[in-house]
Amino acid sequence: MSKEYNVAILGATGAVGRRMIDQLAKSTIPVKSVKLLASSRSAGTHLKFRDQDLVVEETTPDSFDGVDLVLSSAGGSVSKKFLPEAVKRGAVCVDNTSAFRMDEDVPLVVPEVNPEALKNHHGIIANPNCSTIQMVMALEPVRRKFGLKQIIVSTYQAASGAGQAAIDELKKESQAYLDGKNMQEDAHILPTKGDKKHYPLAFNLLPQIDVLEDSGYSHEEWKMIHETKKIMLNDMNSKDIKVTATCVRVPVPIAHGESVYFTVEDESATAQDIMDVIANFPGDVLQDDIKNQIYPQPINAEGSRDTFVGRIRPDYENPGAFNMWVVSDNLLKGAAWNTVENAEYLVKMGLI
């Protein structure tokens, strides 16, 4: 009889946490029991796992007694506080926050891209940033076949990347605009909650995601640059692939879009070659039929675990350079599903 696992979901009541519950229910992980954990404010909430009605508990260090696997998406400070306690008690944790991503001793894993990194875990596995995940999903088959020299990415990131409250705020602002009212009165979260100023997202674009750093880059842009290198090259500061990013928040509820310009080492590669390797890569769906206006769109990607890739075309001015358009549900493949999928791989590989 195969082993069954006692699972805890930390941050269970959030937008990602609720999707983790759903993805765990649909996963291949043999689940013995599920414990839902959140802050004292959310304790007492009732949520369903399969046909079970579960009560959310307040998180304490003792919450992890007897737990084999922790799926976490409750914010970086919460992860730093509680995940080491879970590891002390024998649990393996997959964390969907930025708390441990750049820690040299913590694998940063997209299962289709670098599953072997899971073997080096010391109790904690980090889920990459949502925008990084979909980009490396699209580019990894290209890198394996043709090599990668450079990546220039511009993101079009959905409001949900800042949580359910940002989606709610976008809806309020949209209604205010349509009613001829001042949207600024409803702007309390974006571009980032902890910054000095807040701007409306409805009918607007915000070229800031996370805090702006002295380098001129936002922290989201910094994350995309260094996470990509850590995932693909196992070195966040590697110079073997040049990466730069511009990250923009757009008035879309769910699913990020990305315009990705990349240069390959093998200049004999054609756009059709690029399409072929992407179409055959697990988790990627090629949507590239310009004659019939078929290309990835957020409205169609929402609710899917896949990464959708299209508009693949060469840069005729630069041999070996190409453009592509990438869309994925940032709450699923970008968060909840990638977390549960990492846990599936841990089980399959006998690492938990």
Architecture overview:
- With 352 residues, this protein is of the alpha/beta class.
- The chain folds into two domains: 5-127 and 336-349, NAD(P)-binding Rossmann-like Domain (Rossmann fold); 132-158 and 205-328, Dihydrodipicolinate Reductase, domain 2, CATH 3.30.360.10.
- Helix content is 29%, strand content 23%.
- It contains eight helices and 14 strands.
- A six-stranded parallel β-sheet has the order 5-2-1-6-7-8, with helices on both faces. A six-stranded mixed β-sheet has the order 10-9-11-14-13-12. A two-stranded antiparallel ribbon has the order 3-4.
- A hairpin with a 2-residue loop joins strand 3 (46-49) and strand 4.
- Helix 1 crosses helix 8 (332-348), helix 3 packs parallel to helix 5 (219-233) and helix 3 packs across helix 8 (332-348).
- The longest helix is centred in the middle third of the chain and has 17 residues, at 130-146.
- The radius of gyration is 20 Å and the shape is globular.
- The protein starts with a strand and ends with a helix.
- The relative contact order is 0.16.
- The model has no long low-confidence stretch (mean pLDDT 97).
- The active site is at residues 130, 256.
